[in-house]
Design goal:
301 residues; alpha+beta; Alpha-Beta Plaits; 4-stranded antiparallel sheet
């Protein structure tokens, strides 16, 4: 992390650049996503944490935010040469997080007082009674992080659809324009510790699979001589594979739509894209196709 000391007071004001400097290594490659529904535009830019925290980059973000742009940042570090933001691009897990969007104060109270989890490093107030909690971590695999987030979300009542390692979350210091009344996103810092898997006393597998059946990893037909593992699979195909897997396991279609929509803010209409993807997956399953079949098809037309 950057060599910058922050006050331990949970009531201290946390700026965007302080938040970035305290949560990432200077050379971490991150993705910034700016979604502006008024201009029907989604902008994604990749750069190092040091560059994103710089005055010029922050001014550029503030200008977009003042024009109605919603500002998001990846929770984890990406591969050095990444030009996309997918699960396969994640280099290092920097955070475990929860997205609390229903019964916010009550859920947050459970998180903050449960002895099975350490105090979050940050609690971000994203909108009235909605929060994100972040723990700075190390020595987590992608599978471990996503599994732990899924377990904690179910245990505490957070959003179970928001568990992806490549997720973008809101950044304190900017304004959330989503709900009519502008809301300044604030953060409280509760800890400076960096946590390891053993600090979370939940039954998380020591080597949780990074390609589990709950993750957005494309699948191919087992033993197929026609499978081409070296051929690049698009993110749209991974989204479709994810939808088929979740539906085949009995997940609520609306939950899957929400998960894909939240995961793909880069789409012009994430909700419409997600619904088309789920409807296509449902149609394939209704025709009797196995969810483990080759997923080579384009769903984003």
């Amino acid at each position: 992390m950057f060599s910058r000391k922050l006050t331990e007071s949970p009531n201290a004001t946390i700026t965007a650049w302080d938040f970035i400097k305290d949560n990432y290594d200077p050379d971490d490659r991150l993705a910034v996503v700016i979604k502006n529904p008024h201009e029907n535009r989604v902008t994604q830019r990749m750069d190092t944490a040091k560059a994103i925290a710089s005055p010029d980059f922050q001014k550029w973000l503030r200008d977009h935010n003042e024009r109605g742009g919603e500002i998001y940042l990846t929770t984890n570090a990406l591969m050095a040469e990444s030009s996309t933001r997918t699960r396969q691009d994640v280099l290092a897990i920097r955070h475990v997080y929860l997205d609390i969007d229903a019964e916010g104060p009550a859920v947050l109270q459970k998180v903050m007082t449960d002895p099975r989890v350490p105090k979050p490093n940050y609690v971000v107030n994203t909108s009235p009674e909605k929060f994100q909690t972040l723990w700075k971590v190390q020595d987590f695999s992608i599978g471990q992080a996503e599994t732990l987030q899924r377990i904690m979300a179910a245990e505490f009542g957070a959003d179970r659809a928001v568990v992806d390692a490549a997720r973008v979350l809101r950044v304190p210091g900017f304004t959330n324009h989503k709900y009519g009344e502008p809301h300044l996103i604030t953060a409280q810092r509760h800890s400076s510790e960096i946590h390891k898997p053993e600090h979370f006393r939940f039954p998380v597998p020591e080597f949780a699979s990074d390609a589990s059946n709950l993750s957005r990893t494309a699948t191919t037909k087992a033993g197929s001589s026609e499978s081409k593992p070296n051929k690049e699979i698009s993110q749209s195909e991974r989204d479709w594979a994810y939808a088929k897997q979740r539906l085949a396991m009995g997940a609520d279609p609306e939950e899957v739509v929400q998960a894909i929509s939240e995961y793909r803010p880069d789409k012009w209409n994430p909700g419409g894209y997600a619904r088309r993807t789920v409807e296509k997956a449902k149609a394939e399953l209704n025709e009797g196709n196995s969810p483990q079949e080759n997923v080579r098809s384009v769903v984003d037309r």
